[in-house]
Amino acid sequence: MKLRINGEERAFAEPTPAGPVTLSALVELLGMKPDRVAIELNLEIAPRDRWPHIELKDGDRLEIVHFVGGGSS
Fold it and tell me: Which domains does the chain have, with CATH numbers?
């Protein structure tokens, strides 16, 4: 399965032994912390509580924003 993530095409095995790739599984595969990212799937914000239920399909487009803390003191 090919996904476009932040403008870059990436290939993923699908289905996995555990079943279809979900947004939750993708965040884990990418090594990201779920509480520090927001995801737009095909131009719509994906609510975090729905990630385990949203199955990705070939050709889906995702924008993943990683939140970073910090600033000047």
Answer: 2-66 (3.10.20.30)
